[in-house]
Design a protein that fits this description.
single chain; 249 residues; alpha/beta; six-stranded parallel β-sheet; three-stranded antiparallel β-sheet; 9 strands; binds 2'-O-acetyl adenosine-5-diphosphoribose
Length: 249
Amino acid sequence: MSEQPDIAPLIELLGKTNRVTVLTGAGISAESGIPTFRGEDGLWRNYRAEELATPSAFSQDPKLVWEFYDWRRGIIASKETNPGHIVLAGWEKIFPEFYLITQNIDGFHFKAGSKNIVELHGNIWKLRCTEEGTITENHDSPLKEIPPHCPSCGALLRPHVVWFGESLFPSIIQQAYTLSAQCEVMFVIGTSAFVQPAASLPLRAVEMGAKVVEINIAPTPLTPYADFSLMGKSGEILPKIDKNLKREA
Ligand code: OAD
């Protein structure tokens, strides 16, 4: 039987912490009903995400790739943020320096009200012109045109997300490393901590002397480095921490 972890020492630490950085992964949106990457669900027309979320799939068949994204956008549009997202949005007002780094492309942290967000892998609600590089927001679900085209130059639009085999934007990853290096406490929530460079961010925080708090339903490669390892659902653990926080709001 899993014991309820004693969160009193964490509450005490957070009571005197000013700089908090959070890294989230698919697990924080799992309780909203969004399939995780390495969970068992997630096939679409028998394709795995790794087969369609790639530059080569897009150049071979942009319509198929956009149908896949239109399906994913539809799932996200039909779901709601959960208490985990909501607590993190509230913490922006509680901690003097609070930043959220996410690997998720669902936009739920924005929807919950967070503002200081670094989206490592982009955002499914943003479209990028393959010629001009301009980025526009589009929340149509379903999309009006598949594949969509740039209203100004007519070139194909692509999802503004990082695909398998692509590099992250250097300025974004640099920002994420800086925020990991300068925090006093880093929360790592709902990520399998496998995919680089995201997985190395908490290690940077450890190196710089920050305390690491992991929240996950299962152990990860990061668990041995965590000062606090809270096993359970983020949508339950975060509200519990929040309720006990002793800070002047
Ligand atoms: P994964 O699917 O790899 O991992 C999800 C993690 O969330 C696992 O460790 C689960 O144990 C945990 N989890 C599931 N439900 C949870 C809950 N309710 N509360 C807390 N934890 C829970 O997803 P990511 O780590 O986000 O990249 O994957 C990282 C990247 O891999 C993705 O951003 C994607 C993929 O390749 C790109 O698309 C570029």
